[in-house]
Amino acid sequence: MHLMVEKRAAGGGLRERKKRATRAALAEAAVRLAAEHGADHVTVEAISAAAGVSPRTFFNYFDTRDDAFLAIGPDVGERVRQAVQHAPAELSALEAVREALAVELREIERQHGLWSLHSRVLRTSPHLLVRHLGAHMADETGLAEAIALRVGRGPTAPGFPGGTRPPADADEADDGNTDAGECGAEGDRRRALDLYPRLLAAVAGTAVRVSIEHWCCRQDERAFTEVFRQVFDLLAAGLPAPGR
């Protein structure tokens, strides 16, 4: 669920909008170059030139070259978590997750070409895939915490007084280790959660992935939003077997 281009936001001043645009341009340039030449053969200088900025400017936005290939939007996960927590009370937890994700995924159909390129980059770059999975797991934990709070089963482990959780820490969330979720603070967050929120968060992530993959193969048949909502309808119905 990690789009490689920062979602454009209407809010913020001119300076902030320019910064978001520059970050997005660098991320897109990195993904396109990596898809064409292979991530290992792309330099910071090449990415910067393609985005029309200097290498020095590049490092104002990313600590390393690999960060640009992933370029996970820093606030998308938080927006989803907040939307789940503040969704109308009459919505079930599954419906709240569906609506929160739908808002963030509207850009997918418009930018499906870039999504496809990024998937290719990940498939051919194991070290990037590892980092991507680590960040995905951190996002999944955050979503599970939001679900837990919504259903009244918030985390109770030390560090989560009153059913709240500490703000996500970028360094903690993405350390490049596939087992990061099982040790340290990340592991504590997971162990503090009940089964239901963890399962729903994991299922939601899978639903997004399957929706994207299915739609990318059949773009001429249906709109992405239709596929996405059908996936969640099937989940809500308990995944009944198709009629024969």
Please outline the helices and strands.
Layout: H1 14-37, H2 44-51, H3 55-61, H4 65-70, H5 76-85, H6 93-110, H7 112-124, H8 126-150, H9 170-173, H10 184-191, H11 195-217, H12 224-236
Helix pairs in contact: 1-2, 1-7, 5-6, 5-8, 6-11, 6-12, 7-8, 8-11, 11-12
Could you explain how this protein is built, in words?
With 244 residues, the protein is mostly helical. The protein has two domains: 57 residues, Homeodomain-like (Arc Repressor Mutant, subunit A, Orthogonal Bundle), CATH 1.10.10; 161 residues, Tetracycline Repressor, domain 2. 65% of the residues lie in helices and 0% in strands. It is built from twelve helices and no strands. Helix 5 packs parallel to helix 8. The longest helix is centred in the middle third of the chain and has 25 residues. The protein is globular, with a radius of gyration of 19 Å. The N terminus is likely disordered.
